[in-house]
Amino acid sequence: MAEPIDPGVDIGHVHLKVADVDRALEFYCGVLGFELMQRYGADAAFISAGGYHHHIGLNSWESKGGPPPPRGTTGLYHTAIRYPTRRALADALKRLVDARIRLTGASDHGVSEALYLNDPDGNGVELYWDRAKEDWPQPQPGQKVEMFVHPLDLEDLLAELGE
Questions:
Q1: Number of domains present in the structure of the chain
Q2: Which residues constitute the domain of residue 24?
Q3: Whole-structure pTM value
Q4: SS3 letters for the chain?
Q5: Does the structure show a pLDDT above 90 at 1?
Q6: N vs C: which end of the chain shows fewer Cβ within 10 Å?
Q7: pLDDT one-digit tens code per residue, 27-49
Q8: 35 forms bridges with which residues in the sheet?
Q9: Does residue 73 lie within any of the structural domains?
């Protein structure tokens, strides 16, 4: 095995092919609350959280009006969007419920809690928050992390909002 990558490396942004940029913006900005940073003509947009130049690029340069990729093919499984707190993830869940967007899953992974759904183009989206590292389950010998897939209690998550 090669030496591990520099620990300062991270994922800067994802760029998604979409069929309709305006429809994608309605979802990512209108429902999830990302900010539009720049439109690049009619067929591309760059959005972010917190004023970063862009966390997500959306374009229809090669996909305008196209269908989602068929099941059973290779490609991006999902884009994972990390929220800073459990309360922020609860707010994301409330936004999805209010917009009547169906979840495809909801899991407690021990190290994190996650909501799964599809965007309007069928792209997988994971919304999650990480628990503090000291709260992660203890790994088995020979492993560096212990993760699992347990059901996530959505009512308990929504209770974070105190409404």
A1: 2
A2: 11-64
A3: 0.93
A4: CCCCCCCCCCCCCEEEECCCHHHHHHHHHHHCCCEEEEECCCCEEEEECCCCCCCEEEECCCCCCCCCCCCCCCCCCCEEEEECCHHHHHHHHHHHHHCCCCEEEEEECCCEEEEEEECCCCCEEEEEEECCHHHCCCCCCCCCCCCCCEECCHHHHHHHHCC
A5: no
A6: N
A7: 999 999 999 999 999 999 999 99
A8: 48
A9: no
